Amino acid sequence: MTMKTLSITLLMVLISGTVFSQNRQGQNRATPPPIEERVETILEKVNSELSLTKEQLESSKEIFTDFYTSMDKLRTSGNRPDRSKMDSISKQRDEAFSELLTEDQKKKYDKLKDELFSRRRPNQ
Questions:
Q1: Which partner from 9, 31, 56, 71 sits 20 to 30 angstroms from 63, CA to CA?
Q2: Which residues are within 8 A (CB) of 33 and not within 5 positions of it... i.e. 6 or more apart?
């Protein structure tokens, strides 16, 4: 009787350990910085490359805030975000931001945006 009880107890411990480890997988993701911080970071990079005017900076802040807010809403829905929706939001961001730029700035931005918004990490 004791061997049977011990076996069942051991089996339950193994099963519960497996279940808890699977529940924690989503918790291992890094929490993104606040939207304001991400907007400031991106604007610093963009401004250093494109030399934006004060008016362009103000409008850009609104565009990037809307972009990050929309992306965060997709990601926090609980399910894996729809790639087509994410691409659509990115396209809207690029179109709105490009409208603010001069032709020379647009050319520079086209080269810069892959570096800025790529999900790939360096050295991977």
A1: 31
A2: 41
Please report, as a single letter, which amino acid is at residue 36.
E
pLDDT tens by residue, 40-73: 999 999 999 999 999 999 999 999 999 999 998 8
Whether this model's pTM surpasses 0.90: no
Tokens linked to 16: 């519960």
Domain range list for the chain: 32-117
Distance between CA atoms of 56 and 32, rounded to whole angstroms?
26
User: From the CA atom positions of the chain, what is the Rg in Å?
Assistant: 23
**DSSP assignment, residue 25?**
G
| CA distance to 52, 55, 75, per residue, from 62 (Å) | 14, 11, 20
Q: What is the C-alpha end-to-end distance of the chain, expressed in Å?
A: 54
Q: What is the DSSP letter of 17?
A: H
Residue from 85, 89, 113 nearest 101 by CA: 113
Long-range contacts of 27-36 (CB under 8 A, 24+ apart): 32/72, 35/65, 35/68, 35/69, 35/72, 36/65
